[in-house]
Amino acid sequence: MNKIIYFGEDVEGYDIPVLNEREIRAAAGILFLMMFISIMVVILKGDFLLLKYAITIFLTDILIRVVINPKFSPFLIIGRLIVRNQVPEYVGAQQKKFAWIIGLVLAAIVFISIAVLNIPSPLTGIVCLICLIFLFLETAFGICLGCKFYSMFYKGKAQYCPGEVCDVKSKQEIQKTSSVQLVIVVGFIAYIFLAVFVFNDYFNRNPHILLSPDSSEQVK
């Protein structure tokens, strides 16, 4: 019989509870989009309503993961449905729990400040930004910052980290970056700054309706 209050899942071949990194990244992507949109509404319109709902949903989902069982997290369930046809990538559950506890603390700070006390502050904005960074790195690059902090608080080595980053090994040839590639990146950054410098005035012109009678006047 499956345990209700439990963290991680027992998978044959793994001696510790594990989680599927693919569904975690999918869930992080959904949460990032929800939080990003709600924060942009605050910035652009000064309306906190959507953010209050978003942080309440965020906090509830993280609470379910940490206190009850990740199997019952609505966003992880949605993530599982999205990546159901992909081969699972198993990661250790303990470092994920530590990372989600950090997320729980951050979400609780924002929830109390905005949803309960209704007192937004610069601190709340910073915490929201940190949450976005955590979510973005998880979903875009598979980097779990909380997992990296795990070894700082626990002497035991983390097992089955995403991308096997816990294992000390030499990089494969396809992972190495040559000096030419680095020069290309630096050159591309310089190209962006040059484009801004050269085209800034032209790109700042107001758009005009194509083929309108006075379009020629707007272009001037």
Task: Report on this structure.
The protein has 220 residues and is an all-alpha fold. It is built from 8 helices and 2 strands; from the N terminus they run βαααβααααα. The chain has a domain at 18-170. It has helices spanning 21-45, 49-68, 74-82, 93-116, 122-141, 145-153, 179-203, 215-219; strands at residues 18-20, 90-92. The protein has a two-stranded antiparallel sheet with strand order 1-2. The protein is globular, with a radius of gyration of 23 Å. The relative contact order is 0.11.
Set down the secondary structure blueprint:
Blueprint: E1 18-20, H1 21-45, H2 49-68, H3 74-82, E2 90-92, H4 93-116, H5 122-141, H6 145-153, H7 179-203, H8 215-219
Antiparallel strand pairs: 1-2
Helix pairs in contact: 1-2, 1-3, 1-5, 2-4, 4-5, 4-6
Number of E-state strands = 2
Largest sheet: 2 strands, antiparallel
Radius of gyration: 23 Å
- Give the rounded overall mean pLDDT: 87
- Give helix and strand order, one letter per element, not per position: EHHHEHHHHH
Derived structural class: mainly alpha
Beta-strand percentage range: under 5%
Task: Give the uncertain stretches in residue-range form.
Answer: none
Strand order of the largest sheet: 1-2
Report the end-to-end length measured between terminal Cα atoms.
75 Å
**Tell me, what's the shape?**
globular
Query: Total helix count?
Result: 8
Helix content: 55-70%
